[in-house]
Specification:
The complex is a heterodimer of chains A (277) and B (206). Chain A is 7% helix and 35% strand. Chain A has 277 residues and is mainly β. Chain A is globular, with a radius of gyration of 20 Å. Chain B is an alpha+beta fold and 206 residues long. In chain B, a hairpin with a 5-residue loop joins strand 6 (175-177) and strand 7 (183-199). Classes of the chains: A mainly beta (277), B alpha+beta (206). The A-B interface holds A 155, 157, 160, 162-167, 173, 199-202, 205-212, 214, 228, 241, 243, 263-269 and B 52, 54-55, 57, 64-65, 69, 71, 73-86, 88, 90, 130, 132-138, 141, 177-182.
Chain lengths: 277, 206
């Protein structure tokens, strides 16, 4: 049986190794969700992942191949047998297929840690955040992960490596072909100010007509949102760039809540061309 | 730099429209703003003018589907709010210079008869072209296109439009803007000299 004691560092909590920045398994209402991010060194132009599950604490003989997916950063396990009472025994692992070799992620347990009082404390922190008066306006949505490594787009300047077409249909203004990882994670935010925006005139006579929309929000730390990821509300036809993230609650280095600053993409932005349905 | 500075040859038409407008009343700040907007629209209406291949989609068109916004910074255009990239034209300071003697008098054949004297009004005016883009490199490229286009126009404007001189003073360093995914802007300051000759006419009351 693998060692399931509480680990001391954030890296260990988030399942980090030489190939994966993080690998997390989380039990959600609709079933277990896995999230991962490759390190820059191992992010290729096409990334094939094999998803493995163990129902026996990750013992070597217990792994079964669930699925093979390409260029995604999350996986929703819909095949978990119902009626498993002891969910602590469920473990996941992802393998990056690269040149006929398999680069393994660390093992992620569905209920690894925190345990006991810490788990209660983490729940209390989330509950408090979601029940404060200012947290009433919350909106469901999806999180789109931006690519930072991969095949370079033809719009990248060959001398400086910078993106020369912000509305490039190939890289969506990121400089990396496709621009964003496939699939979008469910991600709800609590926002302090309205999501909507109205055109205004820049009285400083600098920006012309503007539609200012900076939204200060709070969200869960898992899946981890990072700068320039995109948040898409479910019932509001606008898209938002996440421009600032900060962990505001953590437990022994394990992030629980993230403060976010989001800005609405202008109506003609290329980000609206991505289909997340 | 070589080649034509205006492939579609609209620039002379923009300048003649400008000249027709100022013939009777003289040059005002709004006239120069309008001239610059017309010149930039003329340039960005034809992708063959662009030196950078990646800017080919940044063609100016009337309406919301324009590839680039080109407006006076004082105009409220809600349908184009926050649309980037954008080029805004903003007037800077105008400073009057007194030439000649005795209230800018330059010709006075019959002394002590102001009605027969000629005067000159000389002014050094400034405008700023503000280029805003959604990526650093794109902003730099658009700013360079504008900069080179206006540089090429310097001698042409001094000869065909009523400017004593027209100078592109440079290209500012790029700075970040907190809008959208983070935008960037570059300013291109312009300076020009205009000169109006006038006489004083007395009207006898009936």
């Amino acid at each position: 049986m693998p060692n399931r004691t509480i680990l001391e560092t954030r890296e260990s909590y988030l399942g980090s190794n030489a190939y994966f920045e993080f690998f997390i398994a989380q039990d959600e209402l609709t079933g277990p969700h896995l999230y991962w991010q490759l390190t820059s060194e191992y992010t290729g132009s096409t990334n094939i992942f094999e998803i493995y599950r163990s129902l026996d604490y990750g013992n070597p003989d217990s792994w079964e191949l669930l699925d093979t997916v390409t260029d995604v950063w999350l996986y929703h396990d819909t095949t978990l047998p119902k009626g498993i009472k002891d969910k602590v025994r469920i473990a996941y692992r992802v393998k990056l297929v690269r040149d006929n070799t398999r680069l393994e992620s660390p093992i992620a347990y569905l209920f690894p840690r925190p345990v006991g009082k810490e788990r209660i404390l983490a729940k209390a922190i989330v509950r408090k955040a979601f029940t404060e008066p200012w947290s009433l306006p919350h909106t469901s949505g999806k999180l789109l992960k931006r690519k930072y490594k991969g095949e370079k787009c033809s719009c990248v300047d060959n001398l400086t490596g910078e993106v020369t077409n912000s509305d490039c249909s190939i890289c969506k203004g990121t400089g990396i072909v496709a621009g964003y990882w496939k699939a979008a994670a469910e991600y709800h935010i609590i926002h302090r100010n309205p999501l909507d925006s109205r055109p205004a005139f820049d009285v400083n006579l600098f920006l012309g007509s503007v539609a200012p929309s900076e939204v200060v929000a709070l969200g869960k730390a898992i899946p981890p949102p990072t700068t320039y990821d995109v948040w898409i509300p479910d019932n509001f036809n606008r898209r938002f760039y996440i421009v600032q993230t900060q962990t505001v609650a953590e437990l022994r280095g394990f992030p629980i809540l993230t403060a976010l600053v989001l800005r609405m993409a202008e109506a003609n932005d290329i980000i609206y061309s991505i289909d997340v349905s | 730099m070589s080649g034509s500075i205006f492939a579609d040859n609209n620039v002379p038409q923009v300048i003649s429209t400008f000249c027709a407008r100022i013939t009777d009343k003289g040059i005002g700040p709004l006239d120069v703003t309008g001239l610059l907007r017309g010149l930039l629209i003329s340039f960005f209406s034809n992708p063959d003018n662009f030196k950078y291949e990646s800017l080919k989609e940044r063609v100016y068109r009337e309406g919301e589907d324009t590839g680039i916004t080109i407006e006076s910074v004082g105009k409220f255009t809600p349908e184009l709010a926050s649309k980037r990239p954008a080029i805004f034209i903003r007037r800077g300071d105008w400073q009057t210079y007194h030439l000649g003697i005795s209230s800018s008098k330059i010709f006075d054949e019959y002394q002590n008869y102001p009605a027969l004297a000629s005067y000159v009004h000389t002014c050094i005016g400034t405008h700023n072209i503000i280029v805003i883009g959604k990526t650093y490199a794109e902003t730099e490229m658009i700013a360079e296109e504008v900069y080179r286009f206006l540089l090429g126009l310097q001698p042409f404007l001094a000869n065909t439009a009523p400017f004593v001189s027209f100078r592109v003073r440079g290209l500012s360093e790029p700075k970040a803007l907190k809008e959208g995914r983070d935008s960037f802007f570059v300013t291109i300051p312009l300076a020009y000299t205009i000169s109006d000759k006038f006489t004083i006419t007395y009207r006898r009351s009936e």
